[in-house]
Write a structure and sequence with these properties.
It is a multi-pass membrane protein. It is found in: Cell membrane. Residues 313-352 are annotated as: Disordered. The protein has helices spanning 3-28, 31-54, 62-78, 83-105, 110-130, 132-135, 156-179, 181-191, 193-198, 203-229, 239-252, 258-276, 282-296, 300-311, 328-331, 348-351, and strands at residues 141-142, 231-232. It is mainly α and 352 residues long. It has a single domain (31-351), classed as ABC transporter involved in vitamin B12 uptake, BtuC (Orthogonal Bundle). The longest helix is centred in the middle third of the chain and has 27 residues, at 203-229. It is globular and about 55 Å long.
């Protein structure tokens, strides 16, 4: 069997396993915690699309998670719309918000990009805090409904399955993006932007589109989170939210997509366990675990597991679309020359 066939079958197997795990999760743990894991998993995958596959570290993604939560809450509270419409409206708002932020940010890289996105996110946090007539200020939006044509979805167990399709659709979209010709171009831009630019790819345009797509997926996760908990607060816009999702991606493995879900599961479950036990220094424990993972498992949890499996002749993450930075999975980035007759930056796969 060829390597490509094994990779395709491995990707399908991982999708099936992930789907089954998502379906049984609220039977194994407290349903609100299960919903938190699902939302943060999508949020982490959205950030990984930008960090692991485009090479841009954003510390401002809380703006899209929290901004969408507020927009979703306002649509549900004052628009009287079913919660699916509110979630889609929140995702659209996050994408629109990302356009000007991304346009002004993607020309920068490294720490400069991270700091600019952080500055924009803090500016939005300040606006939400001051615009009390709309956002509720420090009180936030309370009592966000879960209306869906008269169905009773206030039970967290039932709402988990009502909100899960949005999370799964977002994860599937991220998985498809990184496996598409567009995703391959993003990897080539991340690995060598100068070479990609020389081959005719509009680097800033690709980065901006990746930024907007990442924001839309983050907004979807934030909208489901807001509806599931019935409130939207300033905590969702604060910089610690961005830091937490970055930690989840690094814990699971940068550039793996699947790693973000694992990191989300570890962090959310640990926080819930410590909070239930009455422990107040949650940040100390999660920070210590983060340091240990970074020092001992440089590829993250999922990245390390995949690396060990490959050394034994297996490939559990063949369908992830790539590996973490510097791994063989991303080193073979496709920066194909522009075919004759095609638009600048278009590959044969993109023109089809």
């Amino acid at each position: 069997m060829s390597r490509l066939a094994r990779s395709g079958r491995g990707g399908i197997a991982l999708l099936v396993i992930g789907l089954l795990a998502a379906l049984v999760l609220p039977w194994l743990i407290y349903p609100p915690v299960a919903l938190d894991i699902a939302c943060w998993a999508l949020f982490a995958a959205a950030l990984d699309l930008l960090l692991g596959f485009t090479g841009l570290l954003s510390f401002g993604h809380a703006a899209f998670w929290g901004g969408s939560a507020y927009c979703t809450g306002l649509i549900a509270l004052h628009g009287g719309m079913p919660f699916p419409v509110a979630i889609l409206g929140g995702a659209a708002f996050a994408a629109l918000l990302a356009l000007p932020i991304g346009f002004l940010s993607v020309r920068l890289t490294g720490i400069y990009f991270a700091m600019v996105t952080l500055a924009f996110a803090q500016m939005i946090y300040f606006v939400a805090n001051q615009w009390r007539d709309v956002t509720g200020g420090e009180n936030g939006l309370q009592g966000i409904p879960r209306e869906l044509f008269g169905l009773d979805l206030y039970d967290p167990f039932f709402f988990y399955y009502a909100g899960l399709p949005f999370v799964l659709a977002g994860l599937l979209a991220a998985w498809r993006i990184v496996r598409s010709p567009f995703g391959r171009v993003l990897v080539s831009i991340r690995d060598n932007p100068a070479r990609a630019r020389a081959l005719g790819y509009p680097v800033d345009r690709y980065r901006l589109l990746a930024f907007v797509l990442s924001a839309a997926l983050s907004g979807t996760a934030g909208g489901v989170f807001a509806i599931g908990h019935g409130f939207a607060s300033l905590d969702g816009l604060y910089w610690t939210t961005s830091g937490q999702v970055v930690m989840m991606v690094i814990l699971g493995g940068i550039g793996t997509l699947w790693g973000g879900a694992i990191g989300a599961g570890v962090v959310v479950q640990l926080q819930d366990f410590l909070a239930t036990a009455g422990f107040e220094g949650i940040g100390i424990v999660t920070g210590s675990i983060f340091i240990v993972i970074v020092l001992l498992f440089r590829r993250g949890i999922w990245g390390t597991a995949r690396h060990l499996a490959r050394r034994r002749g297996l490939s559990p993450a063949g369908g992830s679309g790539g590996g973490p930075a510097g791994s063989p999975g991303l080193a073979r980035a496709p920066a194909s020359p522009r075919p004759a007759g095609g638009p600048p930056g278009a590959t044969a796969g993109e023109r089809c």
